[in-house]
């Protein structure tokens, strides 16, 4: 699997996701600078976490307007898979590739902690190595990860199975106790209609090695390798 | 000239900051405070003398960057 | 001293005030210091020159009260590459890699504006580390706040924590540890000490000493504004017309720009274009330019009109003294300007050639072609005031015998009260606001061990790091307190299995012109020096913050110790979480039941008295070396050093962190009263959970290390036979509830 | 009644947000944009009918919570 990771001024988890992809695939992903309107053909585009443009104005807003995102939109339309993590999720929604938006955490504070996620479906490129209903543990680290969409959008998302992950308690119960940021319906990650674009706030790339917080994020990358090689 | 842009959340969109401010004010003893909404206020210097053109450009800036029209409204004011 | 003949005396700027004694005083220069200035200059200085002397001779830049004492600290060891004197200390951690680290205070700014004060404190210490060529890999923070009931405390906690998180999180550097205390002595003067640890290749370390006649001096980063111009505020407003916009302001940090600056500097450092580099910290362009020139034994000519400016109407005085953030000064090799400029432009940062090196040993400043300042550099540095201030040592208080301290009437209640007191309650509310996981290298997270452990990128090695000080001990007896702070830091590193290597310090004290305060400083240094020597734990960098007083009331003397150690295989590091039933709980070290200055005495009895626990450095070393060897031998499942709150608090922390209970009993035959045994704060002790307790006791006996088996892990209760029986869930809930509950209330 | 509060940075205080917005607008082709400053805009519902009293209370709210007077200015407007 050939992966490209976008780098914006202020990105800061690009190294984490590169390390994860390299560990799983044995292959170094290509790092693509935001100003590059074109980049080599790739099987997967990753928009990584961080504080692109300082997260000023609105998270992801300025990065979404960069030349490289125009190219990402073109490729996404052709079906090239796009994975947006954390700030990447914010950028991808600002760019209109995913529905909804991410607003300030309901408690207004930055939160870095392990959370539990319920996998909503295994029917996607990104989640095929998980089982539907499986509970995994991965960290979050954000101040603006509170997923919000209007009722119509939510209904569409739910009807079409576009919710990828929900925050839950360790036993899988989806309720307020496991929700770290106030996300509506505990939504932690969503797909586009064709499930070729996925965005999520948690960091599977920081759950790859047992000494450093567990391995529950590994299957996401393994699933991608399986689908895309 | 100078322009002022207000960006506010649309009705029905959750406003965690506004809610928290309202809450805090109530707890600080400002019981008279009801609903609170927080928006942004952006002041820009613009090298443009034509009012109509300035307004059109600002409108474009708002749609492209300053506001997220999925959840936000904006209004433009030209000064001086 | 002879005054060199000045070829180009500077001109006065229009509206520049005549220097009066009042203006001199407003610049914080004592009359005799001004005399010294006149002698060096051989004439009356211009405003910008006065400002420069004032900044360079301030306590902060000159260390004039502390220097004589700091010299007493041991600073060398075979693994020390660079001791104090550079932007940060550098130690060799093997495999061609170096750890570069330092701690710095931002106390006063954080009290005025907690968010920005703390944020820019983090920004400053990060620059100190990456200016030497290191990529920062971890941050720590040591915080002291006033009494929780003081009306300002909550606001300060909230702003400081948000500011530290706001800056570090955006930079993408994990904040992995720290400490947080509350005491009324900090009501009017909080302490915010920030530490950064970075990694560099040993052959790619950058220093500040300028070299090469004619080489260009380059300014990079953010533009200069009127941020944080202090001291001379009043007088400076007089020499410019629009006074409203001239008001000196709080420094505001821009972590986004700092992130770009970090990447741009590291990119430039990967080439060989840099001769010297120095960040602009306190006293901005003044201290950075003087330090670079002085260290290189050279002169410097700078055209201040070339400095990138954020505001209109700025003058040379403001440019030299501004503390705008996110700026660096670089001496480039000749002809490399374009290459460097390209890199900074790519990162959308300012880049300007503002001067060049000369052989005059003078700092010549020009403004639109006219010379406005001309200062001989060596005397400004070597003739800087240096004080041997009178000092009076704090006498050792009487030892408080356990018999003078009542035992708890309700043991369960006493433990719950301690576990939920402000100093011991969980600080999770704080560190959850810090990204402690970014970079994917955090092996031991906050609260999971005595020191944080972070993998060194590119291998399996780990760095252990911690910050420690027990100010109430230092207050009671500075020598003991200084010794203890170093010993606890060493112990915390040891408890993870790592080898303690070196120390950075942050000396926070009151007004040094008072002999008692100077005595605290002297005493703490003597204690630290002794401990550092005995433990082979040199001081490689540090920072001094004096005058921490409000209305004559000083803070508790707080020599914060930041320490770094190394472990060869990060997977071998142990934490303090008790995660398994059936493990033996072994107490290492001797327990005499020392209750003087203990938290039990303060929290349960409302008394702050007695001598602090003595520190036996030979025992520290022997016990610590034993613990480290046991960890290396894979005999240790969990380990926790005993400090605040003593044995019972440490055990409770291990249990609730790991979710496993324990049942223990006091050793048979001990003549130490139960409350002194369980709550005493004797030093050089550890609790170890091990699957092979008998073997460990045997090994301890052979090594001459006191060790005793107290009981076993298991269940979901914490039981001390005959005294305590508590559900872990109950301890955990009070331990975790205090800080969030406190932060969620309003007065 | 309804109140509107504007909170803006004092002159001379660095505004990283504003700077980044200005930069971005320039990059997006809005070359006419010069200095940009970002502030907050807070709308509050207040159960108070007396204008003078409302203003006094709002002033207190600003000083206590809404503005950080070390680095920010505020202005109050009463509507309806
Ligand atoms: N301000 C802070 N920032 C980050 N971590 C903190 C902070 N304050 C406390 N901690 C963490 O909480 C835990 C308990 O702190 P402390 O009681 O000082 O530990 P110890 O007694 O082992 O030195 C440690 O892991 C420490 O790193
Ligand atoms: Mg400690």
Note down, in words, how this protein is organized:
The complex is a heterotetramer, with 1 copy of chain A (229 residues), 2 copies of chain B (80 residues) and 1 copy of chain C (747 residues). By secondary structure, chain A is an alpha/beta fold. Chain A contains 6 helices and 11 strands. A 9-stranded mixed sheet of chain A has the order 2-1-3-4-11-10-9-6-7, sandwiched between helices. Chain A is globular. The mean pLDDT of chain A is 96. By secondary structure, chain B is α+β, with helices and mostly antiparallel strands. In chain B, 35% of the residues lie in helices and 38% in strands. Chain B contains 2 helices and 3 strands. Chain B has helices at residues 16-27, 51-66, and strands at residues 2-9, 33-46, 72-79. In chain B, strands 2-1-3 form a 3-stranded antiparallel sheet. The radius of gyration of chain B is 16 Å and the shape is elongated. In chain C, the strands form 5 sheets. Chain C has a 7-stranded mixed sheet with strand order 8-10-7-11-9-12-13. Chain C has a 7-stranded mixed sheet with strand order 23-25-22-26-24-27-28, with helices on both faces. Chain C is globular, with a radius of gyration of 27 Å. Chain C is of the alpha+beta class. The longest helix of chain C is centred in the last third of the chain and has 20 residues, at 515-534. The interface between B and D is medium-sized, with 34 and 33 residues. Strand 2 (33-46) of chain B pairs antiparallel with strand 2 of chain D. The site of adenosine-5'-diphosphate (ADP) has 17 residues of chain C, from strand 4, strand 5 and helix 16.
SSE blueprint and pairings:
The complex is a heterotetramer, with one copy of chain A (229 residues), two copies of chain B (80 residues) and one copy of chain C (747 residues).
Chain A: E1 3-7, H1 14-25, E2 30-33, E3 44-47, H2 61-64, H3 67-77, E4 82-85, H4 87-94, E5 101-103, E6 111-119, E7 135-142, E8 146-148, H5 151-159, E9 163-168, E10 187-191, E11 197-200, H6 218-228
Parallel strand pairs in A: 1-2, 1-3, 3-4, 4-11
Antiparallel strand pairs in A: 5-8, 6-7, 6-9, 9-10, 10-11
Helix pairs in contact in A: 1-6
Chain B: E1 2-9, H1 16-27, E2 33-46, H2 51-66, E3 72-79
Chain C: H1 21-26, H2 31-41, H3 47-56, H4 59-62, H5 67-70, E1 80-82, E2 89-92, E3 97-105, H6 107-112, H7 114-130, E4 135-145, H8 153-171, E5 175-182, E6 191-201, E7 216-221, H9 233-237, H10 255-269, E8 274-279, H11 284-296, E9 299-303, H12 316-321, E10 327-332, H13 337-346, E11 350-358, E12 362-367, E13 370-376, H14 377-382, H15 411-419, H16 428-431, E14 442-444, E15 452-455, E16 462-468, H17 471-476, H18 478-494, E17 499-508, H19 515-534, E18 539-545, E19 549-550, E20 553-554, E21 558-567, E22 584-588, H20 599-605, H21 617-632, E23 638-641, H22 646-658, E24 662-664, H23 674-679, E25 686-690, H24 693-703, E26 707-713, E27 717-720, E28 724-727, H25 728-743
Parallel strand pairs in C: 4-5, 9-12, 17-18, 24-27
Antiparallel strand pairs in C: 1-2, 2-3, 3-6, 4-6, 7-10, 7-11, 8-10, 9-11, 12-13, 14-15, 15-16, 16-21, 17-21, 19-20, 22-25, 22-26, 23-25, 24-26, 27-28
Helix pairs in contact in C: 7-8, 7-10, 8-10, 10-13, 15-25, 18-19, 18-21, 22-25
